[in-house]
Amino acid sequence: MTADADSALDPSPDPVLGGTADAGERPAALAPRGASDPRSGCAPPHRRRALLPYDIDDEALARATWSRLAEPADRAACALVGALGAVPALAWLLQEALDAEGRALPAPPAPVASRGGTARQRAAWGKAAGRWAPRLAGMDIRRELDVLERLGGSLVLPGEAWWPVGLDELDNPPHCLWVRGDPALLSEARDERADSDRGPGADGQPGGGAEPTVRDGGEAPRARGDLVAAGPGAGYALALVGSRASTDYGERVAAQMAYDLTSWGAVVVSGGAFGIDAAAHRGALRAGPTLSVSAGGVDRLYPAANTGLLRAVIDSGALVAEVPPGCQPGRHRFLTRNRLIAAMSGATVVAEAAWRSGALSTARHARDLGRGLGAVPGPVTSMESVGCHRLLRGGAVCVTDAEDALELVAPLGSVDPEASRAAAPGNAGSGLLDGLTGDAAVVLDALPARATATVEALARSAGRSESEVVSALGLLELSGRVERDGMRWRRRAVR
User: Fold this and answer.
1) Rounded to an integer, what distance in angstroms lies between the CA atom of residue 406 and that of residue 417?
2) Is residue 13 a contact partner of residue 124, using CB atoms and an 8 Å limit?
């Protein structure tokens, strides 16, 4: 399968979105399937439908087909499927936009009504069909579905119980998700979609995997909350991403944060790449499942050096892709993949990022979607933290630990990082003057850090009388803060 990044991310005006429809106007109906324009010189529709050797009226097959025909985030494909539905959109492509040999027509009938520019719209749709047509040659999506089934995977469709509802907020959502592992990890909670009509592997349908829905009053399918530890983060998903060229500092922070979040029931979402992504997955796996979003097919564990890690992710959690098995993780697919990471998560935390790090695109998607956005500060001398500091200047929340991160997704007031830190044993009594008032605080502060002092010297430094200093020193000695050294006094070393 070839990937055309320029066409997939074509900046030309969208054939659907380029025109403005009247308020409440519905997409134009497709031409009758049995009709043929005698002026086009094309074969009847039923002949063109034979370009694909399977039933295009099957919703799962149609959506799986679109996931291979069009590159991720292809605006024309997403607009077409969104307006008409996967099956009618595929029927339009085969019946109206291609000739009998499967070549794109220069100006097919526009499938969606819009104001003005009819010729321009038809030409734009012809250009879109021209991107998709070459992939139809010899195509049989059932092969990819068979591969998915052999891998024990599942095909998850929009509207099903396991579909992440956050994806519906994207301008260009995926047509379906190819999943290895437990697809229940994708769904935040049980809802009314549990009675959807189809699930992967049901009634012999392609896609494999377990049945996500139970009809006739049966139990609702499992969801994310059933698979994670109980805690303040149960049911939430949080993206933890960062630079591939990470430092030891960034990896330690990411691993510890991922471990703590997973221990509290949250699901850490990342991209499986080197650096921060891998550290986040490793940290999460120490405590529970994690979710990885791939830029290629779920049969291609990329990068190869992380194969063992990704297999552990599959065994414990899930590996997700919007392209079918066999697709290579091309560079352009990493950028489009990042929008899924942001949309599937309640918030995104960037642990470490250079000025032009790809992780910043995930942060940008999170901000565009109105999701929480946090960044971990780093040494001001580290070039791998420049991107995080850039985000912090732009309004991102400063995140130093898992509690800060969880505060981005949990209900307001349910997490109090400051109170937790104050109660931590390591922070108790760590301040020099904690618990002290009046003369005792003043005298202790006046004592040299690493030298001794007489009562007379302390009286001058503290601005107190000698009797007041003697009284304060007595209290400090009883509390273990100072000790006598002959006629002089010094601070007691804290053990």
Assistant:
1) 9
2) yes
Q: Which tokens go with 466?
A: 């000698």
Q: How many whole angstroms separate alpha carbon 285 and alpha carbon 288? A: 5
* Rounded distance between C-alpha atoms, residue 119 and residue 106, angstroms: 10
More confident residue, 20 or 395: 395
- C-alpha pair distances (Å), 175 with each of 64, 80, 247, 428: 7, 11, 37, 53
pLDDT tens for each residue of 339-375: 999 999 999 999 998 888 888 899 999 999 999 999 9
What pLDDT shows up at residue 201?
40
Question: Could you give the angle at the alpha carbon of 249 between the alpha carbons of 248 and 250, nearest 5°?
Answer: 95
Q: How confident is the model over 223-244, as pLDDT tens digits?
A: 776 777 777 778 889 999 999 9
- How far, in Å, CA of 446 to CA of 461, rounded? 6
Beta-strand relationship, 397-398 and 372-375 = parallel
Q: Which of 119, 76, 79, 96 is nearest to 31 (CA)?
A: 96
Distance CA 329, CA 198 (A): 29
CATH number of 438-491: 1.10.10.10
Q: 237-426 in CATH: which number?
A: 3.40.50.450
Pairing type for strands 318-321 and 397-398 reads: unpaired
Cis peptide before 303 (omega within 30 of 0): yes
Cα dihedral 81, 42, 137, 74 sign: negative
d(CA 415, CA 379): 27
What is the amino acid identity at position 405?
A
State the residue for tokens 């273990």.
480
Query: 3-class SS at 333?
Result: helix
The closest alpha carbon to 354, from 328, 332, 375, belongs to 375
Task: Provide the residue ranges of all domains of the chain, joining segments of one domain with +.
Answer: 5-139, 237-426, 438-491
Is the pLDDT assigned to residue 220 strictly greater than 80?
Answer: no
| C-alpha separations of 404 from 232, 407, 420, 421 in Å | 12, 5, 11, 11
* C-alpha–C-alpha distance, residues 265 and 230, integer Å: 5
Question: Which is higher by pLDDT, 464 or 212?
Answer: 464
Q: What is the DSSP letter of 119?
A: H
Q: Tell me, what's the pLDDT at 88? A: 94
Residue 56 CB contacts under 8 Å (≥ 6 apart), including other chains: 49, 62, 65, 87, 90, 91, 94
Question: Is residue 196 a contact partner of residue 213, using CB atoms and an 8 Å limit?
Answer: yes
Predicted local distance difference test score (pLDDT) of residue 487: 87
